[in-house]
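Objective 1b: paired records.
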Amino acid sequence: MHPILASLTIFLLHLSLSRSAPTDSASTMSAAPAEANAHLISMSYSGSGCPQGSASNAYDSSLNTNRFFFPGISAKIGPNVPQDQKTENCEVQLSIATAAGWRFAVKGKNDDSTVLKTRVDLNGDATGSLLSTFYIAGADSATVRYDYTGPRSGDLAVSDPAPGPAYPRSSCGGGILVVNHRVALSGGSSAAGSMELYGDAGGRPNSNFIPWGALAWERC
């Protein structure tokens, strides 16, 4: 089973019960049009870079609820570096319900896109990769990949979501959005270096890897 599909299993029953009529306990998403009646039903996270309990949270008025803030994710490569340190990821799952005649979509680079900061330190044999995947259950997924070839050292900023691919749309009534960020290093036996990914560049140190401003609300 695809790892993203596996991570959705625990949400499917909950979504089927809540999609058509958001419960009173769900948080109204105030950034959406009132007619969309958009509610955040649940939000969770997992991954080698954000294990349970690693996130902090703070109230967000646009969501009318607390949002997660994560430490940066990082990877290392070198002659004595364990294999499992060459990649790290953080995946966030959101269950969003809307009115029956509405759906949500992920839109590409726009004024509200998050700006992520990547810090690389690579020798000539190392390559670093940043992969951002956006997936909605029952719809297509979109992955944006940035590759950095050594020798290279410094900070880089990337838009999230980035322009280019066709991003997914939910079914009418909402769906489950999965956002997965991964950093990975590769190279030959002499490759050495590190790579780190942070959230909103210029924002809080533990920034949210969810580009809330990139959610669009559409009639269907």
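Objective 1b, second protein:
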Amino acid sequence: MNRIVHKCCAWSGAMCLVAMLVGFVLIAGFIPTRSPGENASEVAQFIIGHRTRIRWGLIVCMLSSSLLMMYAASMAIHMRRIEGRHPALALIQFGMGALFVLEFIYLIFFWQTATFRVDRSPELIQLLNDMAWIPFVGLTSTAVVQVACFGIAVLLDTGEHPIFPRWLGYYNLWVALMFTPGTFNVFFHSGPLAWNGILAWYIPLAVFATWLVINPIYLSRAVDTMAVDVATPARVAGNASASTELSQLRADVDQLLAQSRQ
């Protein structure tokens, strides 16, 4: 085990948060978020008028999104420690994390495409903006499942010395719940559930930011326990099963060798 690699993966969520703030907020200027109720001319004026800032800001976001994959890998590794040899939750979480990164990158390029041609009609620019914002806020299923799986895994750790504090599991389940209001932004052009609303966007965004800070703290601490991994029942069962299979394999090999000598 390379401790530095695992520490970098653990803290990659927080590093991603910093990079996203720089790219999405400071450079691209996407917060405060403009209303979905704006007409096509207003949308086009903003995007074309700020196209250079938007392009560079979203390039930063695109590059930093890869850090979320490292973050998902860190969670999966420690979930595997909890679950043992058949880590269903760890695999689901890692898969959802990979999908989340792909979704994020793909949606970024709708905005990039909107900035690409200054002579494009305002209606088409508005369409591309809608195609980016609606799923960017509303595509919640992958993130919800990813976070919920981690929370459940933490709660399933019944060992004498759990890898994570139990409250972290409940916290992650709460985070998953708080992501869900954005799902309904497609029905609203204004109000708290619109893509710039407090329930659909700003509260989930703030919760997401805390998730990228709180989890890394405990993932980093979990790295420190890997060398002296305290076995939970699941881990003991997994190790015992592996030992039994290895012994059986050795016996089969010995039997084959004995037969070949006859």
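The mean pLDDT is 90. The two ends are 45 Å apart (CA to CA).
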